[in-house]
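Service request form, structural biology core

Requester: graduate student, group of Dr. S.
Request type: structure prediction, single chain
Budget code: on file
Notes: please return the result as structure tokens.

Sequence provided:
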Amino acid sequence: MYIATSSTLYRLDRLPPTKIGDFVLPQPQPRWEFVTQGIRDIAVDSRGRIFGLTHHHLYAVDPKTARLTHIGPTSDAIDDVERISNISVIIHQGRDLLIGVNDKAKVFEIDPATAARKQIAEIGGGCGEIAWTSGRLLTLISSPSPGSGPCVAAVDLDRGSSSCIAPLDEWPHSLTSYWGTPMALVGDEMAALHPMTMQLLPSRAPLQLGKPVVAIASGVK
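Core staff response, request fulfilled:
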């Protein structure tokens, strides 16, 4: 499992996490958004390749050094509304699929070689973080219906729909799966979700990195 702050990549085999390295861009590369905002999310495929997302660009991340290689833009820098906010790798129809969502709950397939995107679904409900776990795609939805609170939802890409599984009292800002167990990042603590009910379990593991964690990710299985 990998953990990322906006500037640093860590490996989580045990606590505390082990630092791999600071994210470094080779020159010449587009740097302004990286310097000002850094990495926003990471995703790992079944081959162990790591992808990093900034405000408008996709990067390949070296798992041994955290060095970044620019792949391409994921959105028009002028069109901030349509920018991709979260990425994940899922297994869809028997193959790895790098996907991204934006704040309008549109789901995109992202080409891992070029960063070109293609919309494949629109699931509604204020979609947040996404993760592939236990053979299904999960997302956080801020408001599935008027007057309702946040929930964990299952996504059906073929139908372009989502359905709430469990309400949330807290809002995790990252989801992943570790050996089949759905995991969430709540503040600076790791928490497991009950595999059946998807409720956050009370036991927490502080990461103690001293700076905000933006993402957790592990390879899909």
